[in-house]
Design a protein that fits this description.
Layout lengths: L1 H7 L4 H5 L1 H4 L8 H13 L3 E6 L7 H21 L3 E5 L10 H15 L7 E3 L7 H14 L3 E6 L5 H11 L3 E4 L14 H18 L4 E3 L3 H14 L7 E5 L4 H9 L4 E7 L4 H10 L1 H13 L1
Helix pairs in contact: 5-6, 6-7, 8-9, 9-10, 12-13
Bound molecules: flavin-adenine dinucleotide (FAD).
Flavin-adenine dinucleotide (FAD) binds next to strand 4, strand 7 and helix 12.
């Protein structure tokens, strides 16, 4: 793991020379490239949420730089008229340094975002070591600023309670399966059981939640959700589907053509290697895709 960490570190030779491997999943290293990607998605009838890549920040300066990068990209979204909001990670805001400091960084972003046509800011959910503190900070921020929402992971055994709580609060939830390797005492490991819990929670959010986001590329789940909203008469503007940039683009377009809302999570920035690594570990075909792009770049 240490070797891998060194290879994937920002500024390493790998990072400098191998961006072409990641370009299917990462919208470039600059704000300009990110805005250009959002514009293309907008033209295809989709909205976006921009993620300035980086996580597990251990120095105050780095967290402040990340916060300022978000403030700059919010300005660019506003000036360009691109239809996008932003997604942030609390460890990138300095959660591992001091949670009060991370909350202050988050609140500055929330206040700045309030000038934008879409002022919404999503807090991504990270590994279980920070689940509770992320939810606590979300609730503290949400008490004052309602333009913030959270992500809940269907693979965690605690999540039904968290869904109930967020419905009570009227908070916006993005529901995903969960991307981290969690221990069996706190997480469901079996895919059919994760899918079952996802669908149960999705139904609750669709019936009683505040504009939930169904984040998945899983066609079986998407079909179940589509059938459920049709059967229950839930209008397509009461929720949105979300997918990752570069993942199942054909399915993204198919869902838009059916009249559903689709928001694409668009990561950008120089710290792309960790994100790229998670996508590759998720799906073997992504490694094959990346390797074949060596010959087609
Ligand atoms: C918009 C969005 C935001 C997310 N935010 C978070 C978050 O904050 N915290 C968190 O823990 N996780 C997050 N995730 C990741 C999520 O938890 C899953 O790890 C990821 O979406 C894979 O699960 P799945 O439900 O999409 O489908 P899976 O069951 O993994 O896959 C279903 C099918 O989709 C396709 N597919 C899925 N993933 C890929 C891929 N990477 N490349 C190519 N094809 C693929 C494959 O054909 C696969 O058979 C997010 C996902 C999305 C879409």
């Amino acid at each position: 793991m240490a070797i891998l960490d060194r290879i994937l570190a920002p500024g390493s030779g790998f990072q400098k020379n191998f961006f072409f491997l990641a370009k299917r999943f990462v919208a470039g290293e600059t704000v300009d490239s990110a805005i250009a990607a959002v514009r293309e998605l907008n033209a295809a009838g989709m909205t976006a949420t921009l993620d300035y890549l980086g996580e597990d920040v251990l120095e105050r300066d780095a967290a402040i730089k990340t916060r300022d990068a978000y403030i700059a990209v919010l300005d660019r979204i506003r000036e360009s008229g691109a239809q996008s909001n932003v997604s942030i990670k609390m460890t990138a805001m300095g959660l591992l340094i001091d949670d009060g400091f991370a909350l202050d960084n988050l609140q500055r972003i929330l206040h700045h975002a309030q000038r934008n046509a879409d002022p919404f800011v999503r807090i991504d959910m990270e590994g279980s070591a920070v689940t509770q503190v992320t939810i606590d900070l979300f609730e503290r921020a949400y008490a004052n600023d309602k333009n913030v929402g959270i992500v809940l992971q269907a693979y965690l055994k605690r999540t039904p309670r968290d869904v109930t709580r967020m419905i009570e609060l009227g908070a916006r939830v993005r529901l995903c399966k969960g991307a981290y390797n969690e221990p069996t005492d706190i997480a469901i490991k079996d895919m059919p059981a994760i899918r079952k819990q996802y669908f149960e929670l999705a139904k609750q959010l669709l019936e009683r939640g505040n504009y939930p986001a169904m984040a998945t590329h899983d066609r079986e789940l998407i079909d179940e959700i589509r059938a459920y909203v049709r059967e229950r008469g839930i209008a397509p503007d009461r929720f949105e589907f979300q997918m990752l940039y570069g993942v199942r683009p054909q399915l993204q377009r198919e869902i838009v053509a059916e009249g559903y809302r689709m928001r694409i999570y668009v990561p950008y920035g120089t710290h792309w290697a960790g994100y790229f690594y998670r996508r590759v570990m998720e799906r073997r075909e992504n490694a094959i895709f990346a390797l074949t792009s060596i010959w087609s770049k």
